Amino acid sequence: MTEQALKNLEAALQPIFSDEEAGYLARLLHSFSPNDTIYYENIDLPDSLKDDYILMAYEERLIVPQSSRPGGAWEDRMLRLEGGALYIMPRVIRQLLNLAESTGTFDPFQAIRQTMAEMDEASVNEYLDYFNRLKSHAVSYKVEGGLLDTLNQGIDPPLDLHATVDLFVLLGMMSPCTRGPITSGLAWYEINPALYWGE
Predict the structure, then answer these.
(1) Model's pTM, two decimal places?
(2) Using CA atoms, how far apart are residues 128 and 174, in angstroms rounded to an integer?
């Protein structure tokens, strides 16, 4: 990443975080380039700040720990803050950050489109439309499984819901929820908070 790309990423983060937070978070995310994984010891931040910014990046779902309990949900990932810990950047976040490095702004719509670049245009548009409707109904970035089905019934023809959810999870757009303050017995999903940035 060039110095200008780092400045652009910092500028994109400044409307969301304080100037200081945007600067350090940009440095943390810059540490990944050009890879989508990084070890704790390779993150370019002072030791006194590293843990706080890794935690911030994880809470924003910009990175997720590699280690996982059974289930694989973001909230099931075991966040270790020590040498040897490996962190992963979701695919859609890599595209979101690449665009921010070029433009100085966040464009979730375009990031999702680029992440799905291998698909035909009609399918991408259907997925984008469906995902944007999901986003608009989320409360604290979470949606109930029944809503996914209800929104899908309004599409003609409906999407293959299982394949759609699997795709969204694979790309890092959302994750199943396995615990937290939600009604027992219902399936819930968390939408990646960073996909609201720039809107």
Answers:
(1) 0.90
(2) 13
Q: Are 27 and 121 in contact (CB under 8 A)?
A: no
Which residue type is seen at 175?
A: S
Strands of 37-39's sheet in order across? 37-39, 86-88, 64-65
Report d(CA 15, CA 106) in Å as an integer: 10
Structure tokens at 155: 């599409």
Q: Looking at the chain, which runs of residues are DSSP E strands? A: 37-39, 64-65, 86-88, 142-144, 174-177, 188-191
Concatenated DSSP letters of 122-180:
HHHHHHHHHHHHHHHH-BTTEEEHHHHHHHHHTSSSPP-HHHHHHHHHHHTSEEEE-SS
CB 175, CB 73: distance < 8 Å: yes
What is the number of alpha carbons within 13 Å of residue 83 lying toward its C-beta?
2
pLDDT tens-digit profile of 62-82?
999 987 665 668 887 888 999
- In tens, the pLDDT along 30-74 reads 888 778 899 999 998 999 999 999 999 999 999 999 876 656 688
